[in-house]
Amino acid sequence: MDIVILAVVIAVVVLGALGGLIVGSRRKKQLPPPPPAAPDITAPPAEPHVGDEAETPREEPRRTIEEVDLPDGSAPVVVEEPPAEAPEIEIPEPTAGRLVRLRTRLSRSQNALGKGLLTLLSREHLDEDTWEEIEDTLLTADVGVQPTQELVERLRERVKVLGTRTPDELRTLLREELITLVGRDMDRAVKTEPEDRKPGIVMVVGVNGTGKTTTTGKLARVLVADGQSVVLGAADTFRAAAADQLQTWGERVGAHTVRGPEAGDPASVAFDAVKEGKEMGANVVLIDTAGRLHTKTGLMDELGKVKRVVEKHAPVDEVLLVLDATTGQNGLVQARVFSEVVDITGIVLTKLDGTAKGGIVVAVQRELGVPVKLIGLGEGADDLAPFEPEAFVDALIGE
Fold first, then answer.
1. From edge to edge, which strands make up the β-sheet containing 284-288?
2. Which of 60, 256, 280, 363 has the fewest CB atoms within 10 Å, i.e. is most exposed?
3. 191: which residues sit within 8 A by CB, 6+ positions away?
4. Region of poorest pLDDT, from 44-53, 321-330, 348-357
5. φ, ψ for residue 285 (rounded to 5)?
6. Is 305 exposed, middle or buried (0-12, 13-18, 19+ CB in 10 A)?
7. b/e code 178-215 from CB counts within 10 Å (16+ = b)
8. Phi, psi (degrees; rounded to nearest 5) at 263
């Protein structure tokens, strides 16, 4: 009996010990981890001054607010900007004899008109068929019907009187008749120097695409080459980049350009250009106008308004019509429209080099009753030349 009691007691003790071990291990697993040790906190490095390395702040003397000089606000601080580089000013070629220097540009027109006529007139027998060929040659060169008939009649009469015809005699005969046809006695000077005032006012008109704005810039070079000061008015406000293009031309020769907002009022720009030209004491104001032909009425209104507004300052001295010589007889339609809008006083024929036909000079003068004053013979900056009838005819028929 004692043995049984002792065994029970030992079993109870062993079970109690095991239970205590299990409970203790569970409590150890549920305990939260101990809090981390607090880190050592050090002061951040001070921000370096300009030119200093990053380091601990140094002891520096400090000034009080009373010791600091503050601006009194009387004069603002002005930051000087470096001056912009001025564009290099070009020196244009002199205009005297410029057409003679550019004579070779008319070589293709020479082949079509001058040499063709000389070849036909050199035939031994000038029958009716030959005279018809001469007429066809003149018409093909855009001389026009009435001027062609007049020239053929005079040639027939003089050849009949002349009798025998040497090449030199034929060349002299043809030269004289062509100069008469082109017009030797017309006043071809571009009027830019009125006697009673300054500046002279020149309007440049024409359809977009004829080289109008480029011609205005080249004309500025012609005037500067002749010793005149020029102000440009960019009144073609409806064509994108027209004002930029004109200003670039002006900067190359030192001409001031007056411009307005895109799609702004052209008459306002023209008015301001003349006003600034007067204030600057310029010799000439060149006004580049819009050249849209969408509706004839709209074009008339715009150009008429520009001219009326400009004439509040002074009369317009010259209205130059720019025509593309390569359009031939089609250019005469444009000429008629513009002549109804404003009083054209002179013609500028562009692109007369290459495939252009020299007879257009005669045709357009007959159509408008005004002289060709300038001709463009290439894309170079100095390829705009004053028109000289003798030099032009010499280029057509060759040396």
1. 256-258, 230-234, 284-288, 200-205, 318-324, 346-350, 372-376, 384-386
2. 60
3. 200, 202, 317, 318, 345
4. 44-53
5. -115, 120
6. middle
7. beebbbeeeebebbbbeeeebbbbbbbbbbeebbbbbb
8. 65, 20
Report pLDDT digits (tens) over 115-155: 888 888 888 888 899 999 999 989 888 888 999 999 999 99
Give the chain's length.
399
Query: By the 8 A CB rule, do 378 and 353 touch?
Result: yes
- pTM attached to this predicted model: 0.75
How far apart CA 289 and CA 309 sit, in angstroms, is: 13
Residue 269: strand, helix, or coil: helix
pLDDT per position as a tens digit, 164-218: 678 888 888 989 999 999 998 899 999 998 888 889 999 999 888 888 999 999 9
What is each CA distance from 285 to 244, 279, 281, 361, 385, in whole angstroms? 17, 12, 10, 27, 19
Beta carbons within 10 angstroms of residue 337's beta carbon = 15
Question: Which token pair is 336?
Answer: 């008629």
Here the tokens at position 7 are: 């065994």
Determine if the peptide bond prior to 39 is cis (ω within 30°): no
Residue with tokens 């607010």: 65
CA 104, 107, 113, 116 torsion: positive or negative? positive
Joined together, the tokens standing for residue 344 give: 């054209």
Helix, strand or coil, per DSSP, at residue 253: helix
Closest CA to 321 of 298, 295, 349: 349
Give the number of other CB atoms < 10 A from CB of residue 304.
13
285 touches 231 (CB < 8 A): yes
Helices 145-162 & 360-368, crossing angle to 10 degrees? Answer: 120
